[in-house]
Design brief:
- The chain starts with a helix and ends with a helix.
- The protein has a two-stranded antiparallel ribbon with strand order 1-2.
- The protein contains 6 helices and 2 strands.
- The protein is mainly alpha-helical and 189 residues long.
- α2 runs antiparallel to α3.
- It is elongated, with a radius of gyration of 29 Å.
- Helices cover 72% and strands 4% of the residues.
Length: 189
């Protein structure tokens, strides 16, 4: 009988950290992202390692969630800026404050192109997170990409002073790189 009691006591001592860890897992599932298992509660190294690995996994999940929230805030900001510009310009045109001419329309098209690139970037991000991203890089002329972006932005750059516009990129000569041209253009804009 005494042997059975000792065996039960030892089994309980071995199982207790796992019972506590199961409770921590339920807390994490319930949204308590700071919940962690207690280490140093057993002398069994495998259980200590298991708890430490569980805590490391919980830390990684918490960091990923924090990054996702920051990313969502950055995306909202990136979308808000061109939408605000677009809305302000259209309201100004509707109220007669801005002329509805070719340069104004080109500026609005530039903003819609920026929004399209942001949405495309969101798609790429989603594909990358799903492990489905296939980015096709090619040899591209960076000066040409910059000149094309500057040409599109020229109406917005009017009066920005020397060095602004398509001529600045062309004066600096050809720079080649292995890249995704649309992504380079998005960064340049």
């Amino acid at each position: 009988m005494a042997g059975g009691a000792v065996g039960f006591w030892r089994a309980r001592r071995l199982a207790q950290p796992l019972v506590e860890l199961a409770a921590v897992a339920r807390q994490l599932r319930a949204g308590l992202s700071g919940a962690r298992g207690r280490t140093g509660t057993t002398k069994v190294q495998e259980i200590e390692d298991f708890i430490a690995d569980f805590n490391a996994m919980a830390d990684s999940a918490e960091a990923a969630e924090r990054e996702r929230r920051l990313s969502n805030a950055a995306i909202a900001h990136e979308l808000r800026t061109p939408l605000t510009v677009l809305n302000g310009r259209l309201c100004g045109m509707a109220d007669g404050l801005f002329a509805l001419d070719q340069a104004a329309v080109q500026g609005l098209l530039t903003q819609t192109s920026l929004l399209t690139r942001i949405v495309d970037d969101l798609r790429l991000l989603t594909l990358a997170q799903a492990g489905q991203l296939a980015l096709s890089c090619e040899d591209c002329d960076l000066a040409r990409v910059a000149a094309d972006v500057a040409k599109v932005l020229q109406p917005l750059l009017a009066g920005a002073g020397p060095g602004a516009g398509a001529g600045a990129a062309a004066r600096n000569g050809t720079r080649r790189s292995w890249a995704h041209p649309a992504s380079v253009a998005g960064v340049a804009a």
